[in-house]
Amino acid sequence: xxxxxxxxxxxxSQLFGPADANLKLVEDAFxxxxxxxxxxxxxxxxxxxxxIIHEVFHEMGSTLNRKGSLTQDDVKTLINVTASQNGxxxxxxxxxxxxxxxxxxxxxxxxxxxYINTVRKNDIVFSVGPxxxxxxxxxxxxxxxxxxxxxxxRIVLCRPAVEAGENxxxxxxxxxxxxxxxxxxxxxxxxxxxxxxxxxxxxxxxxIEVIPLAYMRGRTLNxxxxxxxxxxxxxxxxxxxxxxxxxxxxxxxxxxxxTQIDLPKKNESGLLQVINILKGIDGIGxxxxxxxxxxxxxxxxxxxxxxxxxxE
Length: 312
Known about the structure:
This protein is α/β, with parallel strands linked by helices. It has helices at residues 12-16, 21-29, 47-67, 72-84, 110-121, 135-148, 175-193, 196-204, 236-243, 270-277, 298-311, and strands at residues 2-6, 33-37, 40-44, 96-100, 103-106, 124-128, 154-159, 208-212, 224-228, 251-256, 284-288. The strands form three sheets. Strands 8-7-9-10-6-11 form a six-stranded parallel sheet. The chain has a three-stranded antiparallel sheet with strand order 1-3-2, covered by helices on one side. β4 (96-100) and β5 form a beta hairpin. The longest helix has 21 residues, at 47-67. The radius of gyration is 21 Å and the shape is globular. Mean pLDDT is 84; it is low at 87-91 and 164-168.
């Protein structure tokens, strides 16, 4: 059996170690042939052993991003533990989006797996679903992976600054201080995927921008990964404005929950409109998540179901 692994978001010199010492440990532990070309690893051998080696590299990458380093002792431990488990739990490796600071970011539900596959096949993806289904988190993971792999030059994350029972004008501070609370979930996701020593300079030089949706007007973004979060609160004109910012070699993910529209008139939601008018266009994909994809506290799923019954 032959299997190919593409390593994304990983510093290969650190993964393989000085003089490829970590790689040699893996090669010596198994009889399968391992060939490395750039960030592509090809494994050829017994089916069960190939699965084990695949998982070993997966765990090596996860450990490296979590600890910031990877020793030969770490690699030996990972080989022994993974081999003792007979290579189980390898199904999710193909849906790993990125190796974040807290480990591998991968599909945890069938809906998330479909979402990931949709993003890989399209330049614009709309992901719709209730709170806690990982819409935003996975979108940010895709963006960070694209930046790490030099597929894009910058990331732009934005949200509509729409009050949900509060008024921006009464909040203290300047404009940035007023809108930053609306952008906190995006900062939180970035913080899970990058150490602050790396994230702060990227934010400072605008390689990564976290901004209100209104700041997108008049721009054309080439070689960028664009994310519009809480898109149910974008008006029809704002949605059109955001979508037409897409430049050459850019990708975009739009996420939202159509049950949580905070606009004065719900029928003005650009997300509701766009779902109907853009279907069938090549290069645009749609992902529908539901309560079965909730990955927060188990009670969140029950809360969503209870509210859905109330609205029936």
